[in-house]
Design goal:
two-stranded antiparallel ribbon; 2 domains; DNA recombination; DNA integration; mainly alpha; about 325 residues; hpI Integrase, Chain A; globular
């Protein structure tokens, strides 16, 4: 019989070899904080889907964080299956309560809020350029950090996104493939061109575009501290109580939303954003709101042609003579 702790010690190198550095780092956090304290001394073969569901229900943290812990355990169990340590993966069949999906467009900045963002940023410099790169291209933070001069096509006004620079297992910056492991091209709007040219100045083709003041990689923490982001972001956009404050990833939501507002087809938005499926992209479309507006206009026209009751209020009283007619 093998405990979960013993299985981790034996199988983790094989599990980690299949993961990106960022995912492996997140899984190790999930192991230390949730999986090991809950299941470490348990016999791996005795775990059931209910055991996992119960742990998920009692773990603290956001739903996404707890799901990451289940994903980590499931990856370990898949390796254990291959090693013939267990007969079934106890994470298969685990059920989660269905939650209402969030609206990413509610996190996006309006054009007026974009103006506020520009106002709180420095007038020039590397920090401003990095933020505008996220806003105008829709790239993830690590994708912006991983852009090189050679990725820019000034004639076609596009940028090729083919790598990401993100924290590795020990906090070091690791350059690797994008989240979807696909190369894609993103548009370069005219307002961003001067910032891009400034970032390219004096650099060779293989130099990174959006570096810090000393030429190194920027992290989200360093950028936030440099801009006093936690102190100024509420001047850009606020959210209802209970919702998190404006985050760097919300600039990606902004780019996707604005592509739809600019009437870019959904399939093109999907390609630009690098979404793996069209359903993810459609969450940024305004089709539901447009349907409600069309429905309201149609109902208004319908009621205008109907009798008094449908128009609202009481029908006028009828006299005996009216009834006789």
């Amino acid at each position: 019989m093998v405990t979960v702790n013993e299985a981790f010690a034996r199988l983790w190198p094989a599990v980690a070899s299949l993961l990106s550095d960022g995912t492996a780092r997140g899984y190790l956090v999930a192991w230390r904080r949730r999986v090991r304290p809950t299941f470490g001394t348990r016999e791996l073969s005795e775990l059931t889907p209910f055991d996992v569901e119960l742990a998920f229900a009692t773990w603290s943290g956001a739903v996404s964080t707890r799901k990451d812990a289940v994903a980590m355990l499931s990856a370990l169990c898949r390796a254990a299956l291959k090693a013939r340590l267990i007969a079934a993966n106890p994470c298969v069949g685990v059920e989660y309560r269905r939650l209402q999906s969030g609206d990413p467009t509610s996190r996006a900045l309006s054009r007026h809020e974009v103006d506020r963002l520009l106002a709180v940023l420095p007038r020039d410099g590397c920090y401003r350029r990095f933020v505008l790169a996220m806003l105008y291209t829709g790239c993830r933070f690590g994708e912006v950090a991983g852009l090189r001069v050679a990725d820019v096509d000034l004639e076609g006004l596009t940028i090729r996104v083919q790598r990401t620079a993100s924290p590795g297992r020990h906090g070091e910056i690791v350059v690797g493939p994008t989240k979807g492991r696909r190369v894609r091209d993103v548009p370069m709007p005219e307002p961003f061109v001067p910032e891009l040219l400034a970032a390219m100045e004096g650099k060779g083709d293989h130099d990174y575009l959006f570096t810090g003041p000393r030429g190194g990689f920027l992290s989200s923490g360093n950028l936030s501290r440099a801009l006093d982001w936690h102190g100024v972001r509420d001047r850009v956009k606020t959210f209802p109580p209970g919702e998190p404050a404006l985050h760097w990833h919300d600039l990606r939501h902004t780019a996707a939303t604005h592509l739809f507002l600019a009437n870019v087809p959904a399939t093109d938005v999907q390609a630009i954003m690098g979404h793996s499926d069209l359903a993810t992209t459609q969450r940024y479309a305004d089709t539901r709101r447009d349907a409600a507006r069309r429905g309201g206009a149609a109902l208004t026209a319908y009621y205008a042609q109907s009798n008094g009751q449908l128009q609202g209020g009481e029908s006028p009283a009828k006299s005996a003579a009216d009834l006789g007619n």
